[in-house]
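Researcher: Quick one. two chains, 906 residues in total.
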Amino acid sequence: MLKSIKKIFSLSEDKSKNQAIDHKNIEEEYKKMKVSNRLEENRKNIDNIFDKCTDLIIREFKITSNAKFSAILVYIDNMIETTIFEESIITRLINEKVEYPYPPNSKEYSQYILGIGDNNIFKDLSKVVDSILDGKVVLFVDGIDEAIIIDINNPPGRDVEEPKSETVLRGPREGFTESIGSNITLLRKKIKSINLKMEEFRIGRDTKTKVIIVYLSNIVNPKIVNEVKERINKIDIDSVLESNYIKEYIGDEPTSNFPTVYSTEKPDVIAGKLLGGRVAILTDGTPLVLTVPALFIEFFLNNEDYYLKFIAATFNRWIRYIAFAISTSLPGFYVAITTFHSELIPTTLIVTLIKSRSGVPYPALVECFLMLVAYELLREAGIRMPRALGQAISVVGALVLGQAAVEAGLASTAMVIVISLTALSSFALPSTDMSLAITYPRIIFLVLGGTLGLVGLTCGMIILFLRLTSLRSYGIPYLSPMAPMQRKNLSDIFIRGPLLTKFKKSWVIKRKNTTRG
Amino acid sequence: MKRFISIFILVMITIFITGCMGTKEELDKLGVAVAIGYDITSEGKYMLTAQILNPQKDPSGGMMGKKAGSQQKATDVVVFNAIGDSISDCKGQLSTKLGKELNYGHIDFVVVGKSLAESGIAMVLDAVSRGYKMRPDIPLLVTKGNAFDIIRATSVQEKVPANEISNLLRLQSGFGFTNIVSILDFANSLSSKTKSPVIGVVNLSKNTDADETFEVAGTAVFKKDKLIGFMDMKETRGMQWIDGKVKFGYITTLSRDEGKTTFEIISSSSKIKPSIKTDSYTMLINVKEESNIGEMTGKLDPMKDPEIMNKLEISQENVITNEIKLAVNVAQKKYYADIFGFGEMIHRDYPKEWTNIEGQWKDIFPNLNIEIKVISSLKRPGFISKPIE
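Model:
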């Protein structure tokens, strides 16, 4: 009987296998083909390869309007800028140029009338197909066995606007978009230096996504750049849809909960990190840009600190550290103290705590766990809510979780306060990677505190610290400059020292001493 | 794989060895006691009275206002008592009435009834200090009646009556009308061979509208661990002058020229030095005190003539000296008890001589010479200088 079930499923599999085999054959074939001399053959090959692709457009025309010189332009609709296409390319090729040194059916005529360099003229059909898929225009001329590639790429995309997940009070509000060309330009606008180097890669068998690494060659450690390039070259996957696909291959500790690669959507943050000796990795199709190597302390620092005066900035920084401590350990701490160590609570507080807990039918640990789950549900639902319903449901969520649960006796008021403080502080951190990474230690601390008391909670914290100190990001210990203590760099962690007093300091990642941290 | 298994076993072992497993209890299933009283009954059995927190959930609405005219006061505590063969046995007997585990972590004070104090308080101390649950720094108190009445009384101001007593104790420790002694201090003074321990006293007193309130005044004097008598407020303050513990309060002097003057005490300190002069022992007591003028009647203007300030200081010193003499008298002549710890001071300064006289301290102490020297300084006369006629 199992075999018959298998057969039913296997039938459909077989069909798809056949199709896959056909496709593979075509792919392998055209990889070896070359551009042929005759226009008809080129056209037939293109039609075969782009079978059933209705958005591929082939335009026939005659160069200099002379019937002897046939040519076709092949491109994908909507990927090009049509005004330039009509006015510059077609008009130039159709109009007759008097006294031009080259004959119209030669490669040089078309090449120099359009201004195409030699590296954009291909003989291999595979490269031609790649260029068409990239959104470029290909020119085949009858009698020439080479194809000319023209780049007037203008795909549909989003404008540069403020990123919704990283808002600042003061400072630039530009954000990266999905198009890698405009992202590169945003970076160039910030750092106008010849040392800003960019290297391109293509990753993903099916998506062939463009990935560019950016670094400042006079500041960065060349070993890190080489390591990054090596790891990117080793990636062999089907598709790269978002920078997270690359992050898991490039990052140093894939099994760890804590992030070792920093990602952000703002160009001024990336520019700051480039100047600090990091390597930035941009991916086409996503506005999130990765930075490597990333240390623990970076997820708490914010570029906005440098846009405010140093006392206010130091205060903000300390609020973030406190928020991290509260967000991980407050639920476990509260449950441990009320269950095991009630002598530590002042007597007046115990009166109110007993009052608030006296209707709840289950122990504090279970109650805290249920409320954490409810909070995570709310958060997840709030992300995807359509805006029309959003206002109503946030009010309902607050009412449901807060007041009604307390009055029904399903939760105690003190627990509601604890959970809302925890939730608030997890959003106080500037990096979403870190705030999502905190949920896992939080639950473990809750379980430890609720079953083993403060002793268990302290053991859990020690284990967490040990784990953090053992992580490395590209060879640099995760908790530097605190863990292998570097006195000179510590001042930037605890306070944000005034820029005037920042003397030249060195950083493990950089080669030279500069004034920037 | 091996590494993973070994780490897992390590973690499991640590989890099951450590932890606070024994003390797990939910907050509302705790019987949190705020005050405890011990008594002895006429048959010789011990009685334990406990004031247990029982907070009422506040009803949302104006229900509290309607009860203003009724007799019953809203309280947050419930009182339980039990009789048993020994102190710890009482706790077991309490379990027949109270369904919760008695929790000692929040006790504010312990009250001992007079009859139990007279028959010996050592057993109470042992039961209380041996377990690790009661804090040793809470005050120990004696009443002239039964501890049962004190614990059972309700208070007008506070929802938890024990809070009122602890407020009183906290304030009184600066005023000097009673001596606040913690369980640890009492045990320490018991262990000394010559010092007589003292404990503060709490009583019920009737207010003008027939409500009972607490009164914390006076001291109880013990010999070893048995109660021998009480000292009243003035004598207690004399003792506190010697210990240097008077921080606030008022001193009233009466004289012909200056009328009745009241001084407000700012601070005081004392130094005691024993001295040996050919087989007779003298204790030199130096008390320094600072005060402001509280109120004045009479016709003198202190701002005009600095001599007046000196005179006032002298009269203040006389009053203080009298109070100290009162206290010393009571200790020496009435109770023959060394409540100030003079013996220990001689032991500290003259250890060789002390070994000779230690056995006869009981006889030496009543005849000890005490030299009292008080230096008081008057700081400020206040906003007005001449008393208003």
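Chain B is about 35% helix and 30% strand.
Researcher: Thanks, that's what I needed.
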